[in-house]
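User: What would this chain look like folded?
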Amino acid sequence: MNTNLLTVRSPAGTTRAPRLDPRTKILLVLLVSMVVTGPDGLRFVLPGLLLAAGLALWEGARRRALVLCVAVATMCVLGWLLPLWWPNPLTAIVSLTCTYLIRFTVAIGVGMHLVATTSPTELNAALRAARAPRAISVTMAVMLRFFPVVAAEAAAVRDALRLRGLTGVGAFLCHPVLSLERFTVPMIASSLRAGEDLAASAILRGLGSHRRPTALHPPRFGRPDLVWALLTAGLATAAIVLPTPLT
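Assistant: Here's the prediction, encoded as structure tokens.
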């Protein structure tokens, strides 16, 4: 295969994988989420895992791909092999839980590629190009920026608690309610403040304007989108034709 389809040259002289069109990534997330959570969704779990891991490796996120594979392998062992080795009501409950969690893990793995490689501006431009309602485009653009901010705030609160010696298993077991209060109260305040800042930033950027803004880099489908669409179609066909071990 021609490598020009999968790599581009950056200004620094290094090669990197070109990003997919945000509309393609949204369609992949919706497609995988619908099929893996459907009535016969276990048939599409392994192809969905291959798609999620492939997107992570193509992006260069090897750690994410490894974590996804380890998580799915662990759920396969707990959900399908453990009840055979040690049949009892507890393992039956664990098996039933894993049969549902494994589906959401695969869908989240594909969605993480969308979150990691798409900026709110790109997402808003793609949704406007797809003629999506303004309420949906603005909401998704703000949510895409909100979750990383909340994650950063949670890490800051956790570091502050660690510096004061208020974290640890012993502190949680001795005072579970107080430990949760010490974490959730600052998080609620930080989330409200972050929401207000993001709302003000959205207004300044004109996300709520009725006028159609001009995108500096208009979204358009390219050859990488076609490659991944064909790969997704091939994985879906293999999932339908070939037998699946997850039954």
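The radius of gyration is 22 Å. If you want, I can go into more detail on any region.
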